[in-house]
């Protein structure tokens, strides 16, 4: 059998297994990608694809497929309360049971050589049963018989019984009348009563009340006639509800609009401040009369060389209200100790200060390289004309580096638009807004807000978080398109 045939069989088998487990989307993607790979490497007419296929496959698996899955989740109610499919949620509920205490039997363990025997006695003492010798755990029910006068050794102590608990807990015992007894305690076996039984059309019947709960495929719950529902719920499609909630739900729209606006302001101001500082330092360090320029450049580049999370944690300590060095200096000079982490305005200012510190070296390096490309003749001609440093900067330096720098600044804006690490390590989005149904912080940006919704608070609403993530993707994608357009224009002009 050829390698291509074996590969094709392996792809078909793997896709079939995925489909059987209910992963239809992943199964279809696996089948299509696998068949494309077999064709690419087995066909003599597809030589170029043998080199292109790994890259294309990686892009589809690690970029396109997660994106499609995230977009799809945004149209569902997927959350911690709706994790399962309807079939799995129904099966889970049908498996739930409780011990029938009225018919439970006390048990004792007795050693018989290397084996064990279990002696059971009813609560009123009218029924005494004995198991066959047990040496290992078994899945099949063990038939019990009347104990009679069978000789037994002394019952095992509680300590010895606990040491054999794993073996005994796996046993199912069968009474002469067919009742199955399950392990319910160290000294007890009893029958289990189902809490739910299957009804018609996918319904569930509660035991022993007989109340019928039917699946509501709009809310994702099993509900009775009064509208009461039971957990767990199940995942259903809800259309545009998550997006509608972002736009029209007043309780959600308030913090969402504020967070979206702060995200834009945070990203824009960070780029603005970092550009002003980085460009100024680059121009100063480009002054040939300045001594020790290399030393200064090395020192000013250090914030970019140190791992970001270390710098953020250091600043978190420096801004501590009670013990931080920044407040100690402010207290000594002006007698004030600002509450950097408790006041929303101060917390946002702190974020901008730290992020500017982390970002200016990148801009400084970019501007340093761009300044080297400016012909020195322009500055010589300007000096002959009697122009000063400010005139040179605004008439020569800034216009010549602005165009090639613009796409890079847009990239920096897009990066800060999703700067989750800074928010998570420095403020964790706090201080929080008050009286909101979903957790929202005054220093949250969209990506940290999404993380809190999806993984920390408010019941882990993955569907809503996926909708917000889709919105973030659209915004960042638009900025990337603008970046590409500006980059292309810059190349054409040059």
TrEMBL record:
Compartment annotation: Cell inner membrane; Cell membrane
Membrane association type: Multi-pass membrane protein
Origin superkingdom: Bacteria
InterPro entries (alphabetical): MalF_N, MalF_P2, MalF_P2_sf, MetI-like, MetI-like_sf
All residue ranges annotated as the ABC transmembrane type-1 domain in the record: 260-483
Annotated keywords: Cell inner membrane, Cell membrane, Membrane, Sugar transport, Transmembrane, Transmembrane helix, Transport
Transmembrane segments: 29-49, 56-75, 259-287, 299-319, 349-371, 405-426, 462-484
NCBIfam families: PRK10999.1
PANTHER family: MALTOSE/MALTODEXTRIN TRANSPORT SYSTEM PERMEASE PROTEIN MALF, MALTOSE_MALTODEXTRIN TRANSPORT SYSTEM PERMEASE PROTEIN MALF
Oligomeric form and interacting partners: The complex is composed of two ATP-binding proteins (MalK), two transmembrane proteins (MalG and MalF) and a solute-binding protein (MalE).
Function (record text): Part of the ABC transporter complex MalEFGK involved in maltose/maltodextrin import. Probably responsible for the translocation of the substrate across the membrane.
Family to which the UniProt record says this protein belongs: Belongs to the binding-protein-dependent transport system permease family. MalFG subfamily.
Protein name in the entry: Maltose/maltodextrin transport system permease protein
Encoding gene (name): malF
């Amino acid at each position: 059998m050829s390698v291509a045939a074996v590969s094709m069989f392996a792809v078909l088998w793997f896709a079939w297994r995925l489909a059987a487990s209910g992963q239809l989307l992943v199964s279809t993607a696996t089948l299509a990608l696998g068949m494309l790979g077999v064709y690419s490497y087995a066909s003599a007419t597809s030589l170029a694809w043998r080199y292109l296929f790994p890259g294309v496959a990686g892009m589809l698996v690690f970029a396109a497929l997660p994106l499609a899955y995230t977009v799809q989740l945004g149209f569902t109610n997927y959350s911690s309360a709706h994790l399962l499919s309807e079939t799995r949620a129904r099966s889970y509920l049908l498996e739930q049971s409780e011990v029938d205490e009225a018919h439970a039997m006390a048990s004792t363990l007795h050693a018989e050589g290397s084996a064990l025997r279990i002696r059971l006695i009813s609560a009123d003492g009218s029924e005494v049963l004995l198991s066959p010798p047990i040496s290992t755990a078994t899945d099949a029910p063990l038939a019990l018989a009347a104990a009679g006068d069978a000789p037994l050794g002394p019952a095992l102590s509680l300590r010895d019984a606990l040491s054999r608990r794993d073996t005994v807990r796996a046993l199912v015992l069968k009474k002469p009348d067919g009742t199955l007894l399950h392990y319910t305690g160290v000294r007890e076996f009893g029958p289990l009563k189902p809490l739910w039984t299957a009804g018609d059309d996918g319904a569930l019947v509660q035991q022993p009340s007989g109340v019928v709960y039917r699946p509501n495929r709009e809310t994702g719950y099993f509900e009775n006639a009064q509208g009461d529902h039971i957990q767990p719920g199940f995942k259903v499609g809800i259309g545009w509800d998550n997006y509608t909630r972002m736009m029209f739900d007043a309780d959600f729209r308030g913090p969402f609009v504020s967070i979206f606006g702060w995200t834009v302001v945070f990203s824009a101001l960070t780029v603005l401040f970092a550009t002003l500082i980085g460009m100024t330092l680059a121009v100063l360090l480009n002054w040939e009369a300045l001594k020790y320029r290399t030393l200064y450049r090395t020192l000013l580049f250090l914030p970019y060389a140190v791992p970001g999370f270390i710098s953020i944690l250091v600043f978190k300590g420096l801004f501590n209200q009670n013990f931080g060095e920044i407040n100690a200096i402010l207290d000594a000079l002006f007698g004030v100790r600002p509450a950097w982490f408790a006041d929303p305005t101060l917390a946002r200012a702190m974020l901008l200060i730290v992020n500017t510190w982390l970002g200016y070296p990148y801009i400084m390096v970019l501007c340093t390289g761009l300044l080297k490309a400016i012909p020195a003749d322009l500055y010589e001609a300007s000096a002959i004309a009697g122009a000063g440093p400010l005139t040179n900067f605004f008439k020569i330096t800034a216009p010549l580096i602005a165009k090639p720098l613009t796409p890079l600044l847009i990239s920096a804006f897009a990066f800060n638009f999703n700067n989750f690490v800074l928010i998570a390590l420095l403020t964790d989005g706090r201080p929080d807004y008050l009286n909101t149904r979903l957790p929202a912080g005054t220093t949250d940006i969209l990506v940290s807000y999404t993380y809190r919704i999806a993984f920390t608070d408010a019941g882990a609403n993955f569907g809503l978080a996926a909708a917000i993530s889709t919105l973030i993707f659209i915004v960042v994608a638009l900025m990337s398109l603008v970046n590409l357009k500006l980059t292309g224009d810059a190349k054409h002009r040059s």
